[in-house]
Design brief:
With about 240 residues, the protein is of the alpha+beta class. It has a domain at about 105-243. About 65% of the residues lie in helices and about 10% in strands. Strands 1-3-4-2 form a 4-stranded antiparallel sheet. Helix 2 (about 30-75) runs antiparallel to helix 3, helix 4 (about 120-150) crosses helix 6 and helix 7 (about 205-225) runs antiparallel to helix 8 (about 230-240). The radius of gyration is 22 Å and the shape is flat.
Length: about 240
């Protein structure tokens, strides 16, 4: 079975479970037990599909990673001293992009960063900041999806949603600051021009950890912006992230 088919099946199973959840309250105990058994089965199938997809990717990744690494080396990229070989870094990244949680949802969000400066350290800092900014944007998108889901399930009002969406959009700097240091899964460099160094890297961040860090960051922003009047907004933030 092809990799894309495996991923599609796993994602479809997740959608089935997610869509069925709101109607559980209207079911009889027997129907609920049956639904729980089906959900457990779907989780097992999703795990099996993910495992099979990982095996398939692992078989192909070695050759593909070596080929991609060869292309990068031809562009004068090298790994940092003491780092894992470039092909292995690429292989690890591809595996992380495929990983799923027990619901079949993507386990990691990831971003790319690039920086050019006259020292390796400065170029790496630029690349990290660019990657974190991109990461914050993806987290904002994740939150917007949560907001839409909460609206659809009537857990929050449209007015609350608009207020939260606007607040999140203005809190990117807080989100970036809340992200603890993440060791890049992929990091290479090359010399450019006469005296500059270019660093390219890729970051991966657990979705669960990102959401927890973002919740704390938004609560901190609410306290900083509203001080004594922050309680109502913090309650809305808690409601937003409550599963």
């Amino acid at each position: 079975m092809k990799l894309n088919n495996l991923i599609t099946i796993a994602f479809s199973l997740f959608l089935i479970v997610a869509i069925s959840t709101p109607i559980q309250a209207q079911m009889s105990p027997k129907e609920k037990r049956q639904l729980e058994r089906e959900a457990d089965y779907n989780k097992d199938v999703a795990k099996s599909q993910t495992k099979a997809a990982k095996k398939l990717l692992k078989k192909k990744a070695d050759k593909n990673a070596r080929k991609e690494a060869k292309k990068l080396r031809k562009q004068d990229y090298v790994v940092f001293p003491g780092s894992v070989p470039m092909a292995k870094q690429l292989e690890s990244c591809w595996m992380k992009q495929l990983e799923q949680d027990d619901r079949g949802a993507q386990k990691y969000i990831f971003s790319d960063g690039n920086g050019v400066a006259n020292t390796q350290t400065a170029a790496e800092m630029q690349a990290m900041e660019a990657a974190k900014l991109q990461l914050a944007g993806q987290i904002s998108n994740e939150i917007n999806q949560i907001v839409e889901s909460k609206i659809a399930n009537e857990q929050i009002s449209r007015e609350e949603a608009q207020s939260l969406t606007k607040f999140v959009a203005g809190g990117k700097n807080y989100i970036i600051q809340s992200l603890s240091y993440v060791r890049p899964a992929f990091k290479v460099m090359r010399e450019v021009g006469r005296s500059n160094v270019e660093v390219t890297l890729k970051l991966f961040y657990s979705v669960e950890e990102a959401m927890e860090a973002t919740k704390k960051a938004l609560e901190a922003k609410a306290r900083a912006d509203l001080e004594g009047e922050a309680d109502e907004l913090i309650d809305q933030i808690d409601k937003l992230f409550k599963k």
